[in-house]
Amino acid sequence: MTLFKGAKPFVKWAGGKTQLLSDIESLLPTDFCSRNITYVEPFVGGGSVLFWLLQRYPNIQHAVINDVNARLINVYRVIKAMPQKLISALHVLENEYLPMNHAERTTYFMEKRRRFNDDKLTNVE
């Protein structure tokens, strides 16, 4: 499984498990690191457990993620399938946003939020 070293959750998520990683590790089966694993994460959220496990245990052959939030799962799909397109879109946002003054940034944010809430964004947006 290909993974960039140092990958971390890209979003803060309610119920995040970052603070529980050592407790979670203590509950893993004793032979967890010595056999081929398919890891299934039913509540991926920000992905702290997923990213931590994938970097710590190279014997994980496959990872299956799920979450009740369809928009969040779409983000993971975009990251997997179209990383360069996503990076380009983020650069556009950055280049538009950073030169703005505070009032313009507020207006810009509110417009993006309205489009998000109206479900008018493309997959990459």
UniProtKB/TrEMBL annotation:
Q: Which Gene3D superfamilies match?
A: Vaccinia Virus protein VP39 (3.40.50.150)
Which processes are annotated in GO (biological process)?
DNA restriction-modification system; methylation; mismatch repair
Q: By its UniProt entry, which InterPro entries does this protein fall under?
A: MeTrfase_D12, SAM-dependent_MTases_sf
The organism's superkingdom is given as Bacteria
Q: Which GO terms describe its molecular function?
A: S-adenosyl-L-methionine binding; sequence-specific DNA binding; site-specific DNA-methyltransferase (adenine-specific) activity
Which terms are listed as keywords in the entry?
Answer: Methyltransferase, S-adenosyl-L-methionine, Transferase
The record, for Pfam families, names:
MethyltransfD12
Q: What is this protein called?
A: DNA adenine methylase Dam
- Give the species: Hoylesella shahii DSM 15611 = JCM 12083
Cite the source lineage.
Answer: Bacteria, Pseudomonadati, Bacteroidota, Bacteroidia, Bacteroidales
